[in-house]
Amino acid sequence: MLDEDAIKELSNKHYNGTIIGIERTHETLALFRIKTDFPVPGYKPGQYTTLGLGYWEPRHEDASKEGELNDKKIRRLVRRAYSVSHPVADETGDLYKPAMIDYLEFYIVMVIGKEGRPVPGLTPRLFLKNEGDRINVGHKFTGEYTLDCMGDIRDSAGGLAVFAGTGTGEGPHNRMIWELLSTGYKGKIASIIIVRYKNDLAYEEKYRMLEKKHPNFSYHALTTREADTLHNKVYVQDYIESGALEKKIGRKMDPSDTHIFLCGNPKMLGIPKVREGKKIWPEGKMGVIQLMENRGFVMDYGRTKGNIHYEKYW
């Protein structure tokens, strides 16, 4: 173990941000708002950076055991990439103005760890932190999962942007949806989010407020473990394939004017392997990508730029 002076020295050396706000949805889900010591470079909605804490920091007792750390490793940072989220709307349901935000928001779930998987290093430490505590934030903001792919459709009143996420995969979509609404996008925007329980919907209240003020926006929340859904699970794929989404938004998803953004569970995405130009789809339940390609959509891969865009979280 390191002594207090060594920890202070390491913290001063590595930490360059302060946690200025934490909204805990429940014990293992929270929004972290962080103010950096450095000017945040311009970044695009959907991009990500890294957060880091020292291995010297204590870990949550509920997380899987990490094992002994040698003297060299305990002095290092454990880092993980996170998409930048966004507060979406203020208490009145109005979109936040850029001048009102001088921090970065991240939507994070605490990973407990499971047998056969890598032991989580960052989040069991992060969820012991409080407002005023210090943290490391990466200087580089990057990623190709952005709105650039929409091209001219962003200027079209007839366009449609569909965002589908699982759990905290909603994070980058928050920033992207805010960007479209705040820049006056006239096309329709639909956000689908699937979680286990209703209390996993950290942003629902604000999005319901936005629905009332922006008729072109709709929020579609699905749960899988509530009493009324446990034996009647509707996944994102089911919601789209059944026509329920199109019925609620009042129009078809047409490849000519629709872009689909997917973030989260690989089973929801269903990303194929591409071998010599041929797609080999995952076994089991069809993912959204295959479902929509069967309807004429094309996913991004390699140099092929389509109208299905995805970001996988693991």
Could you explain how this protein is built, in words?
- The protein has 314 residues and is of the alpha/beta class.
- 19% of the residues lie in helices and 26% in strands.
- It is built from 8 helices and 13 strands.
- It has a 6-stranded antiparallel β-sheet.
- It is globular, with a radius of gyration of 20 Å.
- It starts with a helix and ends with a strand.
- The mean pLDDT is 95.
SSE map:
Blueprint: H1 4-14, E1 17-26, E2 29-36, E3 48-54, E4 77-83, E5 104-109, H2 123-126, E6 134-137, E7 160-166, H3 171-182, E8 188-195, H4 204-213, E9 217-223, H5 236-241, H6 244-249, E10 258-264, H7 266-269, E11 273-275, E12 278-280, H8 288-293, E13 308-312
Parallel strand pairs: 7-8, 7-10, 8-9, 10-13
Antiparallel strand pairs: 1-2, 1-6, 2-5, 3-4, 3-6, 11-12
